[in-house]
């Protein structure tokens, strides 16, 4: 099973509620929170997440591209996030943070920038529900997919399988009809798509087509199971 999470970073911010409803067939709605410190861009915060959670029935997949996620992550869960991703490069105590996120009822996820290897975090994997491999440098939408991340996706899937974990492997950055199959073949099963969805004439149809492409390319025995 492949999950498609449209990114509202590519949506029209002047009508976010309408844009969220346009992709209600999606599995999750991906929300990028940027603080202009961890990444050189500023997007939205807790009040907007609260409003989004009231505007759509699609669960919210929060990606915190911020400093001090240990402090802020719990507030986003209270605002309505069903999944919270923090960056390994920013978290002071990632195990404690992951456990706190889970204790508050959300899925705990850790993201890695392109230059950050997965191997040093192998022992943390049982504490997580998902790992996010960035396939662009975080901070801006519409970037080109980094093919050099495919081996890292494969290595991450191998570590997940080696430990017998039922966790998701998400990719974010440059995911489109021309790249999603390669990501799925490498082991990803959750796909963040921004421009490929919100740049389409029919965003809901784009979600369905991307899901079908990814599912067809997913090797037997892989894919989301919970």
UniProtKB/TrEMBL annotation:
It catalyses: D-ribulose 5-phosphate = D-xylulose 5-phosphate. Gene3D superfamilies: Aldolase class I (3.20.20.70). It comes from the Bacteria. The active site is at residues 32, 172. The keyword Isomerase applies. It is an enzyme of class 5 (isomerase). Its EC number is 5.1.3.1. A divalent metal cation binds at residues 30, 32, 63, 172. One of its GO terms (molecular function) is D-ribulose-phosphate 3-epimerase activity. Substrate binds at residues 7, 63, 139-142, 172-174, 194-195. Pfam families: Ribul_P_3_epim. The keyword Isomerase applies. Pathway: Carbohydrate degradation. Keywords: Carbohydrate metabolism, Isomerase, Metal-binding. Coiled coil: none annotated. Its cofactor is Mn(2+); Zn(2+); Co(2+); a divalent metal cation. Binds 1 divalent metal cation per subunit. Belongs to the ribulose-phosphate 3-epimerase family. Catalyzes the reversible epimerization of D-ribulose 5-phosphate to D-xylulose 5-phosphate. NCBIfam families: PRK05581.1-4, rpe. This is Ribulose-phosphate 3-epimerase. The gene is rpe.
């Amino acid at each position: 099973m492949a999950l498609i999470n449209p990114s509202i970073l590519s949506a029209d911010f002047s009508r976010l509620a309408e844009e969220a409803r346009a992709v209600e067939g999606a599995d999750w709605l991906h929300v990028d929170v940027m603080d202009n410190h961890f990444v050189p861009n500023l997007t939205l915060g807790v009040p907007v997440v609260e409003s989004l959670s009231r505007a759509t029935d699609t669960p919210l997949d929060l990606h915190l591209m911020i400093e001090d996620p240990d402090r802020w992550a719990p507030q986003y869960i209270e605002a309505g996030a069903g999944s919270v991703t923090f960056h390994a490069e920013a978290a002071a105590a990632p195990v404690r943070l992951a456990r706190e996120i889970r204790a508050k009822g959300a899925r705990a996820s850790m993201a890695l920038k392109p230059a950050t290897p997965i191997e040093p975090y192998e022992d943390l994997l049982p504490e997580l529900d998902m790992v996010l491999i960035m396939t662009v440098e975080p901070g801006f939408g519409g970037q080109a997919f980094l093919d050099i991340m495919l081996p890292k996706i494969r290595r991450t899937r191998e570590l997940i399988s080696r430990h017998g974990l039922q966790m998701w492997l998400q990719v974010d950055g440059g995911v489109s009809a021309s790249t999603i199959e390669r990501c799925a073949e490498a082991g990803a099963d959750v796909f963040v798509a921004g421009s490929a969805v919100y740049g389409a004439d029919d965003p809901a149809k784009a979600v369905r087509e991307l899901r079908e492409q990814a599912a067809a390319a997913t090797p037997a025995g892989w894919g989301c199971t919970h």
